[in-house]
Each structure stands twice: as structure tokens, then as C-alpha cells.
Amino acid sequence: MWNEFEKQFWQGVVNEEKYDETYFNSIFSFVTSELLDLSLDSISEMPLRDNTRIYSEIIDNDNNTGSNLIDIDSYFNNYQVGDKVLALYEEDNNYYVATITSINYLERTVNVIYDGFEDEGEYVVSASDIDNYNEEEEELFSDEIFDNGTRNSIVTDKIDFPFVNGSKVFAEYYVDRMYYLGTVAGFDEKNSTYKVIFSGFQDEGVFEIKEDKVLKCSDDCYYIANDKTFITPFKFPEICEDKEELIDSYLLSKHHSDILNRLLQDVIVNDTTDGWKQNIPDFIKKYFDNDEFITLDMMILIYVFTEFLTMCFQKSYHNIKV
What we know:
Blueprint: H1 4-15, H2 21-29, H3 33-39, H4 51-58, E1 84-89, E2 94-104, E3 109-114, E4 123-126, E5 130-132, H5 148-151, H6 153-156, E6 168-173, E7 178-188, E8 193-198, E9 207-210, E10 214-216, H7 219-224, H8 227-230, H9 243-270, H10 282-285, H11 296-319
Antiparallel strand pairs: 1-2, 1-5, 2-3, 3-4, 6-7, 6-10, 7-8, 8-9
């Protein structure tokens, strides 16, 4: 997916070990553009897969690059007319199974017919908005994720407030306004503030944080996290105020989180990392040239990030006035 120059650029950014916005974004550039776009505050249109645009914006002033950083023609190498693919449907920004009916190399687009919607005819989709489809694997954007029963979970999965002492949370640090993992050490009902001890920064003492700047973190998530995750900042994304889109975003992030949790729990229970990479879900694996670039620390960080996003969507949903 990435040419050699791009790989060197991103690796250089990661190796700087700077916990600023550039570093935060670069971590997820290797994984999925859904996650990267979320961290770049474009949650209102999800999921997106425009890595070319994001990469261009970050290094726009670099004379060695241009706006056409990735050879989009390479997208066609593995596709031909009649192939089944996952294709973006612009009306809801989700991916669905479709059949390629024609390929326009000049315009870098494909014509597709979505399975189950043959009566609607052909749709034109950008080459960068199609992906491999394997009918033997679970679809990333399966309708089952978004069915009515599942959609109600954003309402039924209620969180008890206030959090009791010892609760694990994501809390905003007032200096950089980023969220970090921590533990509740008390609640001031009069001032609506929590006392929080940030994990990895215990020596800095207890911080008083406004109630609306504290998000629940599950025990599963917290105890899988490691020292590298504790010092990693998470930014609360700018989120749309459409309740239906928030439900979709919540369910998708929760779906990702559940899959990664099962993967990591297997590693913990079996007390071995032998063969664990074989179980990495395709929605992450396909963004790496090979398994060598995937580390357990990276999987833990991505898992915690998806958990954080899930709580952001849930909080935003309940904050919207009916």
C-alpha cells in the first residue's frame, strides 16, 4: 500500500517519540484510515479511506512529494470485471458487497452493482473506495452490526454515575486537553468534579477533573493496557450531532473493540504470543505489507483507542437533547 518513501517518512515520525498531535496521528496511519480519520476530527463522515489526502496534508510543504502520492492505478491490479468487492456507498459512508461491472482506468473509478440492490442499477465508485471481499470471512460492515436490536445497545448499555472510587476512566488532563487512563480516587458532588490519579503519572498526585471530562474505561481495557498505553494521549474527536450517525459510529467502534479484546484475551489466557498474528482481524492486517510491522504493543494501543472512541460516541449520544 505504501511506497518506500512514505514508509520512511512515517517511520521517522514514529521514531521521534513525541506525544503531540503529529505523533498521535502517525501511530494510526499504519492501521486503518477509519481510525486515522477519527483522530483527525472528521468523524462526521465515517468510515473514510482517503489516506492520500491525509498524507498530502501532513507533508504538504515537502518538495519531494506531490498531491498524487499513491499510484491509484495499483488499486486495479487485483480487480477485474465480475469480481466481488466491498464498495463504499456514499449515502451512509458504509461498505457493502458489490460486483464490478466495468473499470475506467482514465477516471480511476469502477462501476458496481450492490448485492441485493440490483434494481437500483450501477454506481460509480472511486478506485480508492473499494476493498477486497472474502465471503468466508466476517464482513467488516455486516448488517448484523447495525440491526435494530443491536442499535438499542447504545441506550441499554447504561453507565452508573457517579463513578465509585477505584473505577478506571479516561480523563482529560487540563494542560494539553488530551485524555489519559486513570483511576477515580473520589467525587465532589457539590462541585461535580472527580479526583483522578493518572496511570503512569502517579508521582504528579491527584487531579480534580470536571465530571463531563471523565469517561468510563472497562476493567478489561484497563488491565490489558501497558506502560506505553498509559502515557499515550487520546483526543476527544469533534463529533457530529446526528443521533443515527452516532449510533452507527458507536456500534462500529464497539465491534472493533470486541474483536481486538478477544484477540488479546487469547494471548493472555494462553500465556504465549506464538501464532497470535494469524488471528489479527483483516480490517487491521490488510493495511500492513507483512506481519513483521505488527507488534503486540501496537495491538494493545489500537484496542484501547477503539474503546476510548466507543465511550466518546456513547457520551455524545446521551448529551444530545431530544
